[in-house]
Each structure stands twice: as structure tokens, then as C-alpha cells.
């Protein structure tokens, strides 16, 4: 999920579009199957992001002031103050241009219809805007969808000592690849939880293709509200503030000794529980860090 990458991509796309080179069209960011399906049906569409809508969430601890205007419009910009934890929703049949102060100077990015965005802190503690996972008002946005490369998830399972006796929970499971790998390689049972219906559909299809349907389950739900107490291994590829948010849940629900493996981001406040960390290279030789904690 290299956030810097997402930002650079947004900036590059914006520059290209500003130069008239491309047209904006979009960019970035222990139940059984039946339960997932019925929950999917009950999630009201308006809680997500419509195809002609943009949502902006404030995940920082301070109000964020920003300005908005339609791309290519000369109309005066709309000014807005977004409080922490609030979400602004805009009808957006076309690209919107957002400006705000970063490092004391105004920066401008393009936001694309159908996408959720969040103001978050960057690694240097400055407020910046990132692509999110969803625009729902009834759930936190733990991280945008960015899959863990196969080399990295394989190492996560090794560090997590996954075996046929394990029950692996992936919080924010994306396309289900971690629990599917654990099931296929080790015969482990697994539960993947994701809030995005598309991710759960992919996960179920991938589990079927891998022949591990009987070992894994996927839940369409806000992971912060799902009981994870049966897990023997937990995996997370989420943003640092999300890891921090989930820490009390991990402490409350997981049994002592359960292993928690995170990709790239540490769990703030669990420094004393960190067992080890390891740098893993993906197929493009990019470095990822895997952190192992013992609850
Ligand atoms: C960075 S991806 C990780 C995907 C997968 N675990 C992997 O490593 O390949 C984060 C996932 O968290 C999901 N997510 C974000 N907020 C969530 C929430 N409140 N509850 C459940 N899933 C959430 C996103 O939809 C996304 O698929």
C-alpha cells in the first residue's frame, strides 16, 4: 500500500490531465458463504460511493480546510471545513479539483467520480489526501485495497507459524489471498473479512478456483465489529492508525499467545509485543517489512 506511491500516481495523473494528455476516468488507492450473501444484500447502496459521487473523509485529529471546484471550471471554488471523523459527499459526474494547505503551501489534486478519499497523516505527520476503500458513514476506512504480493504473504504465513491446526483471520482480506494461501499450502482454516462486496465476491471465487472452499470463509462486514476470538493467527495489511484503532480489539478478543502478523505497518503501542520483523523483496525487488507480534 505504499501511500507515497498512490500520491505520486494521483499527482502524475493530474499533471497529465492538466496538460490535456488524458481524460480523467478513475483511479486511486466465521461465517459461511450464505451469511456473506445475505449481508451483501442488506448493505444500502447509499452508504458506499455512487458512480457519480465522491466522498472525502477526515481521519486526522484536526479540522481540515479545503477548496473544491469542478475540473476545467472558472466558477469560484467552494470552501469547506471538514471536522475529524466527518465525511463530505459530493455529486460528481466529472472530476473535481481539490486544494488544501500542505507544508504551508497550497497543493491541488484531482478527485475522480466513484472514489472514496481520506485526509490522513503522511509519514512526516502532515495532512494529505489518499484514496480510501469505501465511503460508508457507518464504518471506519481501515485502508484502501492494495494486495499483498505473493512473496510477502508467504513469509507472513511462515512467521505466523501457520499449520494445519491454525485458524487464520485476515482483517481486511482483499481478494482473500492470504487465507487462501494458508489453506492451500498448510491446510489451515481461515476467515477473511472485508467491507467491500466486490472483494468478498473475488475472495469466494478465488477460494473456489484454489479448491479450498471447505477450509475458508469470507465475511462481508466492518472488521471492527466482527468477533475474532477463535483466531490463532491474525494477519493485517492496514494503515498505522487502523492498526492502532484495532489494538484494543486484539487485546480484548485474542487469546494470549496468538500471533499477529502485519505487512509494512507496525501496531503502535505494541512495541513490547513485537517478536521480530523481516524485510521481504517482491518480484519487482521492492522491499516490504513484515512484523510479528505475540498477543
Ligand atoms: C491493503 S488491503 C489488504 C488486502 C489483503 N489483506 C492483502 O493483504 O492482500 C486493505 C483491505 O481492507 C478493507 N477494509 C477497509 N476498511 C475496512 C473495514 N472497516 N472492515 C473490513 N475491511 C475493510 C479494504 O476493502 C481492503 O480490501
Share of β-strand residues: 25-35%
CATH architectural category of the largest domain: 3-Layer(aba) Sandwich
Associated small molecules = S-adenosylmethionine
- The count of β-strands is 15
How do the strands line up in the largest sheet? 11-10-9-12-13-15-14
Query: Roughly how much helix do the residues carry, as a percent range?
Result: 25-40%
Structural class call reads alpha/beta
Q: Can you give keywords for this protein?
A:
295 residues, Immunoglobulin-like, Rossmann fold, 2 domains, 7-stranded mixed β-sheet, 6 helices
Walk me through this protein's architecture.
The structure is a single chain. The chain is an alpha/beta fold. The protein has 2 domains: 3-28 and 49-131, Sandwich (Immunoglobulin-like); 150-294, Rossmann fold (3-Layer(aba) Sandwich). It contains 6 helices and 15 strands. The strands form 3 sheets. A 7-stranded mixed beta sheet has the order 11-10-9-12-13-15-14. A 4-stranded mixed beta sheet has the order 4-1-7-8. Helix 3 (150-159) packs across helix 4 (177-186). Residues 1-47 have low confidence and may be disordered. It binds S-adenosylmethionine. S-adenosylmethionine (SAM) binds next to helix 4 and strand 10.
